[in-house]
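Item description
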Amino acid sequence: MKFRADVSGTICGLRFYKGGTQNGGTHEGHVWTSGGQLLASATFTNETASGWQQVNFATRVQIAANTVYIASYTAPQGRYAEDNNYFANAGIDNGPLHVLQDGVSGGNGVYLYGTGGFPTNSHLSSNYWVDVVFSADVVPPATAINDLFLFRSGIARTVNYAGPLGLGVLANDTDPGDQPLGAVVVGTLPTGVTLASNGVVTINRTSAAFFNYRTDNGTQLSQPASGAFATLAIDGAPTAVVENCTYTRAGAGSVSGAACAMVGASTFTMNLKANDTDPDSATNVPVDSVGRTVTGANITATSTGVAVSANAACGQAAIVKTASRATVTNNCDGTVRVVVSAGAPASPITLTYGAIDDLGAASATANRTTDTVTVQ
């Protein structure tokens, strides 16, 4: 018997109608996918001489809504109940279950002669009086959780970070059944904002905004009907904070200071971002953590005799000077590589820079700083 359910649920067991003792032997019940995968089987016991017989599965079979399955049983001695043409013109509807009319999904009912197996044959749209014991799931709604995302004014951004059940606004949402989630807009989206059904948000505007949405777990929408609140805030620019070191010229050179480390003769790295701060790490904290972390630096000025190499990967412009004290390379990760020139005087190496966060927001001029390497 081919059947489907309007809602997801579980098959607890199977029933079949026995016309009399002529339908004897050991009867086994089976549940199959429409493609022939066996989902469960069980042997009927304690049967009566006639009437409806039932067996319960040791483990219930989870079925999806609006999906065709097949219930069958084996009758090793034949003499099974049969009504020809039963499904020829109509199925059986007993909501939320539906036994399919012949032709809706191939033939119904189906059978297979032999010792058992997946029934694929049909004859005269016959009803062999097989039934399922079904329990509909009581599916609670998913929970949509408020979001905050950062973006830069006038610069397009796509929010597609992944969570357990979805992307973007759905990434931090939850569902009791851990079902994949969809997003549904409540009301109207702000200008320059889109929300895809998979939760991905695109933002391209010049001012902060917000919108509401609900989460769909395939059965029902999250509550309340007003939806969760998604805030879109302008990314705050970070502030550069001083990091100083001391370089000693003797021998191959040495360096002291938490932000610096030797990496070769007369060569050391300096972590410019070691003490830098981003306002969005404490307020306007984004749920995807994007826009709250200082990840780079841009050097804008140096002391006499300190040259800076260009690095297009992070927009670092060259600072062209005679490198009598040092040559600096921006590593594009908030650190720099400093090569102290041979014969460099005991004069400070200074680097004026601005911090850059992971969305590309850079320190305002007033929030730049100058780091100093004392040379001795």
Q: What stands out?
A: Residues 245-375 form one domain. The radius of gyration is 35 Å. The chain has a mean pLDDT of 96.
